[in-house]
Amino acid sequence: MTTPAEPAAEAPAGDPGETRVALVVMAAGSATRMGLGVNKVLLPLAGRPMLCWSLATASRLPHVTRVVVVAAARDEHDVRAVLERELPALDIQVVTGGATRHASEWHALRSLAPEIRGGAFEVLVVHDAARPLASAPVFEDVIAAAARYGGAIPVRPQHGLVTADGAQLPSGQDLVTVQTPQAFRAAPLLSAYEQADRSGFTGTDTASSFERYTDLPVRCVVAPAENIKVTVPADVRLAEALLVDQRRYPARGSPTTPVTR
What we know:
- This protein is an alpha/beta fold.
- The chain contains 7 helices and 11 strands.
- The chain starts with a strand and ends in a 15-residue tail after the last helix.
C-alpha cells in the first residue's frame, strides 16, 4: 500500500510515558501466497512460531496492559495451543476474526469496548503477526505519536517508482509504504469503527477508518528496513537471517544462550 508521505519529524521518538496500551495482533489471514495450506503465522521462524515474535517484543513494554490475538475460526485451537506453550506467562485473549481485515479489527474492538469506555487504556495498537521483526522502538514511537496526536503509522520511503507504462514518477512525488504496528487513541478509534459499522464502510487498514470518521491527524513514523512482512516462502528465509543476525532473542530452550549463525 502506498500513500503520499507526511512529515515524520513531528512524531516524538520513543517516549510513550505512562500511556496505558492495548495490543491487538492480527493473525486471521489466509496465507494463500505461502502455498502451504497452513496459516503462516503458525509456522516456525528461527526456532519459534512466527506469531510469537512480535507478541514477545510488544508484551515486554511496561505500558502494554492488554493483549488480544485475532485468529480465524479454523485456526483458533492451534493458536491457543501455541500461545499456551510458547508464552504461558502472558494473559492473551483470542478473538475470532471476520471475513475481512476490517471485520476482524471490528471484532477485536467490540471485545475491548467495555474497557475502552471505562478508560482502561488510552492507546490501542494494531499489528500484523506476519511482521515478526517489529522492534520495541517502533512500537514505542507509534504509541508516543498516537498519544500526542491521535494516530500513528510506520512508513518506509519508496524511491524510484515507475507507473504501469514504465514512466518515472516525478522526484517531488514522494510515496511511502504503510506498515504496522499502527497506533491510535482508543476511544476515538472505537467510535470510528462504530460509525463505520452503521454506514457499511470497510477500511483497507485501521488508519483508513480512523481518518474517515475522526478529525484527529495520523502521523507517520519512519520504520526500519528490517520491519518486513512475511508473504512468500523467500521472506521466511530473509526474516530468519535477520533475526539470527540481530541476535534479538535467546535461542529457544535456552534462556541465556544468544542466537548464533
